[in-house]
Design brief:
- The structure is a single chain.
- By secondary structure, the protein is an alpha+beta fold.
- The protein has four domains: 127 residues, Sandwich (Immunoglobulin-like); 139 residues; 111 residues, Immunoglobulin-like (Sandwich), CATH 2.60.40; 112 residues, Four Helix Bundle (Hemerythrin (Met), subunit A).
- Helices cover 25% and strands 38% of the residues.
- The strands form nine sheets. Strands 11, 12, 14, 15 and 16 form a five-stranded antiparallel β-sheet that branches. Strands 21, 22, 23, 24 and 25 form a five-stranded antiparallel β-sheet that branches. A four-stranded antiparallel β-sheet has the order 1-3-6-5.
- α4 runs antiparallel to α8, α6 packs antiparallel against α7 and α7 runs antiparallel to α8.
- The longest helix has 29 residues.
- It is elongated, with a radius of gyration of 40 Å.
């Protein structure tokens, strides 16, 4: 029996702090002017509490209150209860004051709320009404731009996360819309797409709040000095608790609520960018900033003459991968080198860019022998250690045991010689003898076969002209064929630049996307860079373009955007080119 009583007493002692924590005091502001007002709310979530006793507001004048509200909910088998008492106060003098605890009676126990520290300064220009819904929203909803580093080096990745904070007890946003996007002058930037908005718990200005992440951007400063990020602005619709008591349709007392519309701004952020140090800067430094690894690989070390070998120059790690330049390969004479294939495998997150950049060279030896490919070096600046570092590869030997030998008179036996082809007519000698033919021996042109042929030529051209004219009339009457030929010519016109870039991934897809935009701009007089895909669909539907054609057109636009950041083969680029050509021809026939 004594053991049971001990356990019961222990449970009561443990539960007392929990009960105490359920009765708390919150204020609308902790710092205010002498002529400002504040709201203080005492809330308890335990049903059955009574005998509420307010604190002594000796340093404040009670302007309104107490306004009492009760809220009871039963959702999915779980019930919740809250009861609050709200006062509107105005300070009597300047200084730092403590609002004492209020008390309630619960289960024959007296429970006290927490105390609150208030700082009162000199009077402001205009006293604000603490029950103004717009003021309540402004005091409890904030749009904040959180910058990971406000003092980075040139080329160092930083992130900006835009968060919407709100105090759920005082206000809740039910709709938001971007009204002005931020600009990042002086930065390379890439936006990270946000999926479904998720509510998270956090703290802002020492107050626990809920928040949503609205936007994330990765920035890389391009120059030293003071750079600014312009404000991000959104339009919001919010429900705020006004503190008053109203009655619902059934006459029940409910706490007053009101909807307000506001424009929130994150404010301008200033970034002080540091220049890269000159001390210790390597001569081959080309702007790489981050933490990288560097290597050069060869697919073969022994091969035959005219047999190819691939040599890969790879930089991997984290940093400004999209902006760095790889060191160029220099090969000895006799080893023919082709333009490298550039590939990127880069991921973007709040820590910056990570992944690898690779250039693959194709080399073909012309003669037998041993070829030494000189070592390459790559330098970068590490902002964490604030030092430069140079990485060196090892030299590579390519052995060609078989194949033809260079000519004996070749001064560079292992050199690749790309000589121009010399024809017999390229070198003319001085003739010392001549062969003259007498005019009398030359055949006469008059009455010759050629003379009569030229004489009959105008007569023969008449039926030929009639035939050509007939074919032209038939071609002009072929409306469908003419549309087809016109569309084909138009498609080739817009896609000519993209065709030139086949094999160069990023320039190709930029040119392809630009061609599609220019086509719509010319045919529909719209700036496609300023409208959404839904708007493009709407315009094409108004032109009675088939839904399948519209979907294919938008699909090609999406592929252009996606393919820039994924490995793509030359064959896939050719297919994309043909697909774009077909869709332009198809749209032109329908429009």
């Amino acid at each position: 029996m004594k053991k049971r009583n001990s356990i019961l007493y222990l449970l009561i002692l443990v539960s007392l702090p929990i009960i105490a924590q359920s009765f708390k005091a919150t204020v609308s502001k902790k710092q205010l002017g002498l002529n400002d007002r504040l709201r203080i709310t005492f809330s308890i979530d335990k049903q059955g509490a009574d005998d509420f006793t307010p604190p002594d507001f000796k340093n404040f004048k009670v302007v309104a209150g107490p306004m009492q509200s009760t809220n009871f909910q039963y959702i999915n088998g779980k019930q919740s209860f809250s009861q609050s008492f709200t006062y509107t106060l105005q300070p009597k003098s300047k200084g730092k004051f403590t609002i004492p605890s209020a008390t309630v009676s619960y289960n024959e126990k007296i429970i006290s709320s927490n105390t609150v520290q208030i700082t009162v300064s000199k009077a402001t220009k205009k006293a604000a009404n603490p029950n103004d819904p717009s003021l309540i929203a402004k005091e409890n909803i904030f749009l904040v731009a959180e910058v990971s580093n406000v003092n980075p080096y040139v080329g160092e990745s930083i992130s900006v996360v835009y968060k919407l904070y709100m105090d759920r007890n005082q206000a809740a946003v039910n709709n938001e819309r971007e009204s002005k996007a931020p600009t990042f002058n002086g930065f390379w930037n890439q936006n990270i797409k946000i999926g479904q908005l998720t509510e998270r718990k956090g703290e802002y200005k020492g107050k626990k709040m809920s928040y949503y992440i609205l936007r994330k951007d990765v920035l890389i400063p391009q120059r030293a000095g003071k750079l600014s990020i312009s404000p991000f602005e959104i339009d919001i619709s919010a429900i705020v608790a006004t503190g008053g008591v109203q009655r619902d349709f059934f006459g029940r007392r409910i706490r007053g609520q009101k909807q307000v519309n506001l424009i929130l701004s994150s404010g301008r952020r200033t970034i002080q960018v540091k220049a890269l140090p000159e001390e210790g800067k390597p001569s081959n430094f080309s702007g790489a900033v981050g933490d990288f690894a560097f290597k050069v690989n060869s697919t073969k070390s022994i091969l035959k003459a005219n047999e190819s070998v691939q040599l890969k120059v790879i930089v991997s790690g984290t940093g400004n991968l999209k902006l760095l330049s790889l060191p160029k390969l220099e090969t000895p004479k006799g080893l023919e080198q082709y333009e490298p294939e550039h590939k990127e495998n880069i991921r973007t997150n709040l820590r910056g860019l990570s992944g690898s950049v690779k250039e693959t060279y194709t080399l073909v030896p012309q003669y037998r022998g041993k070829y030494k490919i000189p070592a390459l070096s790559f330098s970068f600046f590490n902002p964490k250690t604030e030092t430069y570092k140079t990485l060196n590869s090892v030299s590579i030997i390519v052995d060609v045991p078989d194949g033809k030998m260079p000519k004996d008179n070749d001064e560079t036996p292992i050199a690749t010689r790309k000589n121009n082809v010399i024809n017999d007519t390229d070198i003319r000698f001085i003739h010392t003898k001549t062969k003259l033919i007498s005019i009398a021996q030359k055949p006469d042109f008059f009455k010759s076969t050629l003379f009569y042929l030229l004489l009959l030529l105008p007569l023969l051209s008449i039926p030929l002209g009639i035939y050509i004219g007939k074919k032209k009339r038939e071609r002009d009457d072929d409306i469908i064929g003419n549309k087809q030929r016109k569309a084909d010519k138009l498609a080739k016109k817009y896609l000519s630049e993209a065709q030139k870039q086949l094999g160069n991934k990023e320039p190709f897809y930029i040119a392809l996307e630009k061609a599609l935009h220019n086509y719509l701009k010319a045919k529909l007089q719209v700036e496609t860079s300023e409208i959404s895909k839904e708007k493009i669909r709407s315009i094409l539907e108004n032109k009675e373009v088939k839904d399948q054609s519209i979907t294919q057109f938008l699909k090609v636009l999406e592929d252009c955007d996606f393919a820039r950041y994924t490995p793509i083969s030359n064959l896939q680029m050719e297919k994309e080119y043909e697909k774009a050509k077909e869709i332009i021809m198809d749209l032109d026939r329908q429009i």
